[in-house]
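Researcher: Re-running this chain for the archive, since the previous output was lost when a drive failed. Same request as before.
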Amino acid sequence: MRVRDLPLSATLVSHYESNGIEELYPPQVAAVEAGIADGGRVVAAIPTASGKTFIAELAMLTADGPGLYIVPLRALAREKYETFAKLPGVSVGISTGDFDSAEEDLGEYDIVVATSEKVDSAIRNGASWVEDLACVVVDEVHLLGAPGRGPTLEITLATLQRRVPDLQLVALSATVDNPEVIAAWLDAELVESTWRPVSLRTGVYADGTVEFDDDSSLSVDVPPIGPNDDGATEATVSLVADAVENGGQCLAFVRSRREAETLADRLADEDLSPAPELGDELAELGGTTTGERLSECARTGVGFHHAGLRSTHRAAVENAFRDRRLSVICATPTLAAGVNVPARRVVIRDQKRYTGDSMTWIPVLDVHQMCGRAGRPHLDPYGEAVLVGDESVKDELVERYVTADAEAVDSQFADPEALRTHVLSVVASGFADSLDGIADVFSATYYAHQHPNVSLADLVADVVSDLESMEMLAVDGASLSATTLGAQTSRQYVSPTTGARIIAGVRTISEMADENVTARTALEVVCDTPDMHDTYLGNRERALMYQYARTHAAEFTTAMHEADPFEDWLTAVKTARILHEWSEGADIETLVDRYRIGPGDLESRVERAEWLLGAADALCAALDTDVPEFREVRALLSP
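Model: Regenerated structure tokens:
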């Protein structure tokens, strides 16, 4: 099937053909036959690089009205926005922030790219443009099974289907164990395929040889391992060097930020693909130690990528790799679930990661996502993915990852925190005013589809009681309504637990002496909430934070002897201290060195604090009080 055979304008056909897209891939043909261009609902569970973006574009371009493309990450939203903006004659908007806004101007675009959280918040805030949608495409729909993000995506899709009954839904997924269940939930046709435009072979390295799943093998020249050398690292270096020397690019995945930087330093010693100009460009983006380390590695053609990097550095690494100016990226697994950065070879050095106090195996789906990055259409003759092991674990790695199917996608909607958030949302938004009404709304969720025998009214009864005790809901017999505090909490897009903590903090502030209410007070309140990212508290700094907390005890709304759990509160104090020093003009390098955080960590916490301080100010209005410190410190946090 050819592009010119599709119901697209001559201008769009010319655009695709000029970009080398003339013939459809088999999965794309299957999607067309499933009705993707005729308003049909489709779930496409196909490998990376098999044409999911074109399937999405075809659905939105042939829909009888505006399209919405939902993504899990901001970085992916920006990438898709830039991709869709190249379509001739198509206006594209993007929305990833301002959770207390309906952003009515989004209704002016042909296509809107947004995170699921933004769409959920727009619905809560009464966005009228949602009702005009003709087509919604969900990228990475398998994230329905992710704690936190999954329930938000689930309720968003359930609500969209209720508000727009004739909505065309297209869900894009990696290959998972139960795509037919997702398709049945969405009343969609399933397009399932393992076809790839570039062949992929996956194998395990052990003792100098990679044995692939197609019965081929690869001998790897690994120098003798010295007493201080790490065998897995040296094997990874050899595998990466071999790929680069043969004209390919390589992604190397490790378990942690520190390991990513350490491996990049080790690979930099090989001077695989000198790129001094790129190093200079990265150096101009910022002067932190991490940034300098990145620019030095980049001079040798090697980069690293993790959440501790500033967003500008992460984007620069991604773009340089896509432009083939960077030969290697050493990354944590989060890169595999994010933006498009394919390579000829993927090397997975670590298959376990720390979770709490122990090491656990990485989920099969995550490893398959990493492996799926191997092989770039029109650039690579093949793709290779290699898990690094040794003879003692070789067979286990093959059984666990190479020949295994990815896990099934199971709903996380019954998580108590998720239930509190979404029960409050449906009541505050006017979608339900009773237990039975909530159950009716939730009957359209993936959870209800997977658990048809569960009483949804019973499931949410305890949650309603919790929200009543939090002063978020008013219960009058069988009737439910959101209180002023509950409505404002939902509108600000903070969790009920966060809203309750802020409300308690504001009330405590009203009883404090004026001279004790400071910027530290405001920051302690918002940092001691579940919506603020955790900050690592090391044993060496615990005593220093304890002393800081004692010194400023009069400024805090939580008494030290009442903090429970104390470690969590002390961690919040650390975050508040970092943000306070930032607001007073401390430079990023000082804070990164002093508190052992990454530049990206500081960036994300500043952003979170601005959001939460704004929510706190709004909740003050609902309480008919004023704490100007919330506004004042928020203004100081902005660059």
